[in-house]
Amino acid sequence: MSLTTTKSTHPTMVQFSRFLLSLSLLAVGLASPVKRTVAQVEADIASISAQVTTLDNNINAFPNTGGSLVAALAIHTDATSLETTLNQGTTDVKSTGTFDETDGNTILNSVEAFEPTILDALKGIAAKEPAFAALPIGGIPALILADLKTLRTDTAAFAQALIAAAPTDLKSEATTIANTIDAAFAAAIAVYS
């Protein structure tokens, strides 16, 4: 008695194999870094600027006495949204590559435009520390401190990505802006530490 082995390929098995191959190729395509454009970076900066303005407005609106937990938590929510946008901006800058002179100037001007707003927000949050500490529910100053530390880290990462992508002649000015903003973060963090 002899046993003969026959090779049989079942149609369902072939279809399943093709399906797995298609999924694998799709996964590789999705995992590959996507090249971003300067227009996307400019859109990120516009979003960051708008969110910084919202944060600054909510900090300025928070009263020196008698503030509410709801208003304090709105500031925390603003900070969390800004953190997300900064991180996306950093990713987009890194995947865009080096800016040419025109784009570099446009981006630098956009960042310079909202620099006073972020400085005002940081000065305001520092000045209002007693008002946050006086809220009937504790923990708000610690929450603000955590937000400040995270925003400082995220802002520095975004700034370093922009500096790395900037044309050589704009790097010094971009570094000065980054250092000014970082110093303001350090001052606000010191108040809450």
From TrEMBL:
One Pfam family linked to the record: HsbA
GO-annotated cellular components: extracellular region
Keyword Signal: yes
Coiled coil: none
Entries under InterPro entries matching the protein: Cell_wall_mannoprotein_1
Keywords linked to the UniProt accession: Signal
Signal peptide segment: 1-31
Top-level taxon of the source organism: Eukaryota
PANTHER family (UniProt xref): CELL WALL SERINE-THREONINE-RICH GALACTOMANNOPROTEIN MP1 (AFU_ORTHOLOGUE AFUA_4G03240), HYDROPHOBIC SURFACE BINDING PROTEIN
Protein's name in the database: Hydrophobic surface binding protein
Organism of provenance: Mycena metata
Lineage: Eukaryota, Fungi, Dikarya, Basidiomycota, Agaricomycotina
